Amino acid sequence: MAERLTVAFLGPLGTYSHQAAYDRFGSAVDYHESTTITGVFNAVSARTVHVGVIPQENSIFGSVVETYDALRRPNVGFIRGEVVLEIQHCLLVARGVKRDDIRFIKSHEQALGQCRDFLAQNFPSVALEKAASTAAAAQAVLTSRNSAAICSKLCATVFDGLEVLFEGIQDRNSNFTRFFVLSAAEDGELPPQPIPVPSPTRCLLRLSSGKGNVGPAITQLLVALAMTVSRLDRRPQLDSEVVFHDIYFAELERRDATWPSEIENAIERVRASGGDAHLLGIW
C-alpha cells in the first residue's frame, strides 16, 4: 500500500487552517496538528510532514506576522500553492454561559482584529486574550464559566460542551483568509488534489540589501527587479548590523509563457545591483 502523505496545519482540530487544509486535500491524507504557525514551518523543513498549510493574509486584518517572520529564515521551504477561505466568526461559550457572565474573550490575534467593531460595541469592558489559534481558544473556554472564544461554528461540533452565542461577528461580511501551501523543496511530492490546479501565475521573492548600511535601497532593488509586483511586505532583518534594516517580500504576477526564465533573470539583476534575492515559491 502506498504511503499516505501528511499535511501539517495550525491546530487543534476546528481551526480555519484545518478547514483550508481539508478543502484543498480532503480525506486522502493524514493531518498533523501544530500548536503554532512556526511549528508548521518546522515540521515541513524537518520533513516530518510532506506539506504545511499556513495562513498568510486576511482581507480585513492584513498580513499574518508570524508567517512572514518564519519566511525570513533560510531553508524555510517552498510555497507551492494557495487556498482562499471565507471566514465567518462566531462567539462560542461553554453551554449555559450567558452574555453577562463573560469577562474574557479569547482568540488568535487575527480573529480578535477582524472583530474589533463587534467587540467594541458589545463587550467594551471585557478583557481580550490572545490564543495560539481560534480552536485553542474554543478548547480553553470549555471549562471556563466567565470566558468566550471567537472561532468557527465548526468548533461547537468539534468540542462537545460549547454553544454559539453570536454568529457572523466579523467587521465585514466579505472576510477571506489566504493560506500558503508549503513543501520542503520545489520538487517535493504533493498530495493529490480533488480540484485541478491551474498553471502557476505568482511567485514570492525575499529581497534585502545586505547586512550593512551601504547596500541599495528597496527602490533600487525594485527597479532592478523590473517585474510586476502585486504586493510588498516587510519585516525587520534581525541579523543586520543596522537598526530598522528590513527584509522585503515581493509577490510577482505572471506576464507570459517565458515567466520562469524571467524570474531567474530578475533575481540575477537584483544581485548584480548589490542586493540579494531568494525565490520562496511559485504557484
UniProtKB/TrEMBL annotation:
Domain spans labelled Prephenate dehydratase: 6-184
GO molecular function: prephenate dehydratase activity
Gene Ontology BP annotations: L-phenylalanine biosynthetic process
Enzyme class name: lyase
PROSITE patterns, per database record: PREPHENATE_DEHYDR_3
Top-rank lineage group of the source organism: Eukaryota
Membrane-traversing stretches: none
Pfam families on file: PDT (PF00800)
Pathway: Amino-acid biosynthesis; L-phenylalanine biosynthesis; phenylpyruvate from prephenate: step 1/1
The enzyme's E.C. designation: 4.2.1.51
Any coiled-coil regions, as ranges: none
InterPro entries registered for this protein in UniProt: Chor_mutase/pphenate_deHydtase, Preph_deHydtase
UniProt keyword annotations, A-Z: Amino-acid biosynthesis, Aromatic amino acid biosynthesis, Lyase, Phenylalanine biosynthesis
Any one of the GO CC terms: cytoplasm
PANTHER family, per the entry: PREPHENATE DEHYDRATASE P PROTEIN, PREPHENATE DEHYDRATASE-RELATED
Name of the protein in question: prephenate dehydratase
